[in-house]
Amino acid sequence: MKDLTEIRWHGRGGQGVVTAGKVLAETALEAGLYFQAFPDYGPERAGAPIRAYTRLSKRPIVVHNQIDSPDVVVVLDPTILSTVSVVDGLEEGGIVIVNTSQPPDKLRAQLKLEGGRVFAVNASHIAIEETGREITNTPMLGALAKATGLFTLDAVIAQLRHSFGTKLSAEIVEANVRAAKRAAEEMKED
Questions:
Q1: How far apart are CA 57 and CA 81, in angstroms?
Q2: CATH number for region 4-189
Q3: What distances in angstroms separate CA 14 from CA 34, 77, 133, one per listed residue?
Q4: What pTM value is reported for the model?
Q5: CB 19 within 8 A of CB 167
Q6: Domain boundaries, the chain
Q7: What are the Cα distances from residue 179, in Å, to 4, 42, 83, 107?
Q8: Contact status, residue 96 vs residue 86, Cβ threshold 8 Å
């Protein structure tokens, strides 16, 4: 991990974008890191495009603005790609992880991205199969863990169990754990 890693999340209200950023921040807390996790809402309604941000650091974080030059971009809803330029400001060598059934090479072409690393995972399909709902945040957390190496998949899963354990039934928590594991296994890179 570099001194400061900045992650920008894109999705729609109701998909768990803010929750994903928060779970990642809580994973950082457990690892003894400094973090920030905050949303950027437009109209606060289900289905509206939203962004969330997560900063992770080994040192205290002194910046408090939105993330304009992310190291990692995570897209929970592929329909965002037609309306938002998700790779704007992406650092050279940055990572893009998108919930899509497209192969990563076609995704790279669609994004017009020359460098960096592009990952594709059909998180929608995984979420529906494992949880019965198209809430893609937990599969995308699994994909993020594998693509970035910021945290182990086991650390993210432990935090999912902790964060969701008091809010959801054990059956739903384990369905989310399976979704995270599958996404890490099924993700493809270009």
A1: 29
A2: 3.40.920.10
A3: 27, 11, 11
A4: 0.93
A5: no
A6: 4-189
A7: 28, 28, 27, 22
A8: yes
